[in-house]
Design goal:
mainly alpha, about 80% helix
């Protein structure tokens, strides 16, 4: 099987957790404290993965300058895109409570939610493909970390969408599309950047890491803290530890 197709398959697998989480969040009516706890755990998983896997790989490939430039650039790009979409109704897209706005309250908010979900998922999916450039083997730590973090993202967001009056068709369609695009992003991450220099690959990896960390600070961690308060830090640390162990086992 071609390596580019395998890359797409791994991205699709990681992205499928969004759809699984969406089904659970929309139909199971899980208590918000449970949803928020899973969000905190997923945040810790991603923080660990981007610290010990993504940033370390970026530094090894391109050194400090390319890594730092990409990391700050990713944060700036995500911040700008998030600010724009938030003003269109996607500010609380990962909230499981009743803060999400409906289409009646703000026209175009459905599209903003979709685009917001897209910018949240694309950077981490691209990294899966990039991780296969060196030797053709995927970083299993990255795949597992993204899968574990995508599950609560889909769960929390779809619970909030249900409370905002979004239909099951909209929610399932949205997350099915995002899962598919995640696979395409991983495929493109491998095919588009295979011929680039280590410095460029380093920068792209760091851009993704910066975007992911900014997303966590802007969306997932605030959602968790709003519900579980003082337990947020402990749960996040547990998620961090799980991913840290995975990193060491993978190494």
């Amino acid at each position: 099987m071609p390596t580019w197709l395998i890359a797409g398959g791994w991205g699709l697998l990681a992205g499928s957790a969004l759809l699984i989480g969406a089904f659970i969040g929309f139909f199971a009516h899980i208590p918000q404290k449970v949803v928020a706890s899973v969000m905190a755990f997923g945040s810790g998983v991603l923080i660990s993965a981007l610290s010990f896997d993504l940033m370390d790989e970026a530094f090894n490939l391109g050194g400090f300058d390319a890594t730092a430039l990409g990391f700050l650039g990713g944060a700036a790009i995500y911040t700008g895109a998030n600010w724009l979409l938030s003003s269109q109704g996607a500010r609380h897209r990962k909230r499981s409570n009743d803060l999400q706005v409906s289409e009646d309250e703000q026209s175009g908010s459905g599209m903003a939610l979709a685009l917001g979900a897209l910018i949240d998922g694309i950077p981490e999916s691209i990294v899966i493909g990039i991780s296969m450039i060196q030797g053709g083997a995927v970083s299993m730590v990255t795949v597992v970390a993204i899968f574990l973090s995508n599950l609560p993202e889909g769960l929390s967001s779809s619970a909030g969408m249900r409370k905002a009056g979004r239909s099951a068709k909209y929610v399932v369609g949205l997350w099915s599309g995002i899962a598919f695009i995640s696979g395409v992003a991983s495929l493109l991450g491998y095919t588009l950047f295979s011929g680039f220099s280590p410095d460029i690959i380093s920068m792209i990896t760091a851009i993704a890491a910066g975007a992911v960390l900014t997303m966590l600070a802007n969306t997932m961690i605030p959602e968790a803290f709003e519900e579980v308060h003082n337990l947020t830090g402990l749960i996040t640390v547990l998620g961090f530890l799980v991913a840290f162990v995975l990193t060491k086992m993978g190494g």
